[in-house]
Amino acid sequence: MGISPSSLQQCIDAVGNGRSGFAGYPTNPLYQFQWVKPYNLDVHVTPAAVVRPQTARDISALLTCAKTNNVKVQAKSGGHSYANYGLGGESGALAIDLVNFQSFRLDNATWHAYIGAGTKLGEVDKKLHPLGRAFAHGVCPDVGIGGHATIGGLGPMSRMWGSALDHVVEVEVVTADGKIQRASETENKDLFWGLKGAAASFGIITEFVMRTHPEPKDVVQYSYTFAFGSQEDAAPAYVQWQNLIADPAHDRRFGTMFIMFPLGAIITGTFYGTKAEFDATGIAGKLPGSSEKTLVVNDWLGALAHDAENEGLYLSNLATPFYSKSLGFTRETLIPTSKVPELFRWTDKQDKGTMLWFIIFDATGGAVGDPPMNSTAFAHRDKVLWYQSYVVGLPLSAKTKKFVADFHGQVLAMAPKGASGTYAGYVDPALGEKGQMEYWGPNYKTLQGVKAKWDPADLFHNPQSVRLNPIV
């Protein structure tokens, strides 16, 4: 005799009503490979079920199934959560995969784009490009808009236009009570505030309405590669680069990263304008010299492809066992230039346990910092720089994880007092229940109030989602 389906499975199957490819369960062959598809293979998660609904009504009915069976719920868009939170982050949750939510239309009167929550960023660009429109977002084309535009959504054009989250003007969302409703600055305003920074705690968005800009005609992209014998040799280049990005007057059309990796360092960047405009800024003369310099003038779509290629070199879209930590810096908490050689020297001396390691310093600020800190749940408006470490191990060893944790400790020890804040897009399960304050800072208390109103039973839950009760 076969295993009898659970009450949850019976309920989900009733919602699916015989549709092929609607739901997968742990009893299915190749469940992890075909249905779960974890991004971080070091975080082991087995959802109670993975469902691929087709309508908001499906999602509403599925939430009833979850509540009836006392099962937590999380939505998965592109599935790039560093701790597999789109799958629940821990076993036993109902994962709602939004892969079928691919709708798109552009309102030619408002230039607002209506985008299904399962659409990946690369597809968004392909749909907007023929219409000559764009908005700010990250450079990885396989990231889903559902998580990206609700957690921040930082990218090279963010200094010019703000984060992806700042372009959201309205959403359709299914809330814990099963209602399908709209949220905006004029409708369900408190819910909208929470969704723009912490959506995984409040509901499942099925459609975004995004403000767009005219697509830039010219884009200048550059990379300076430094083949140093040691990281310590790269320290002066980093100091020069940090001094540039710390200048509040540097052109907002300019986005850049400094990347440490086993064989040296690289500076990459993008300028949204012509080559003549780039030259007029004087930025090139403020960057450290290099033996290898690449300068490319692109159109918008070519620039996105170039960024995606660079991203793939350092943050692969392939599922791997990996670990990451991050920290945001204000101008006041940047690593002092006198400490940089010491940090880079320390990095040289460590046994990392892998050759697949990268430490990325990514400039932010500009338009991201224009809105007040409490204008949305995203609280890191004051940051001008993010660092992110990223290590891959096959398998991921304790030694490799220790290198990442110890590097983070070194950064905290060297940065001025008050350096804090982790980007929720680089979620760090090692922070435990301290993560909420790192992700949302002074906005967290308000988020708890929104949680109590819209999800009092904590249906939408992952290991570091907004809690109903104060964190001790």
From TrEMBL:
Belongs to the oxygen-dependent FAD-linked oxidoreductase family. It comes from Schizothecium vesticola. This is FAD-binding PCMH-type domain-containing protein. PROSITE patterns: FAD_PCMH, OX2_COVAL_FAD. Pfam families: BBE (PF08031), FAD_binding_4 (PF01565). Keywords: FAD, Flavoprotein, Oxidoreductase. Gene3D superfamilies: 3.30.465.10, 3.40.462.20. PANTHER family: BINDING OXIDOREDUCTASE, PUTATIVE (AFU_ORTHOLOGUE AFUA_1G17690)-RELATED, OXIDASE, PUTATIVE (AFU_ORTHOLOGUE AFUA_6G14340)-RELATED. GO terms for molecular function: FAD binding; oxidoreductase activity. Residues 43-215 form the FAD-binding PCMH-type domain.
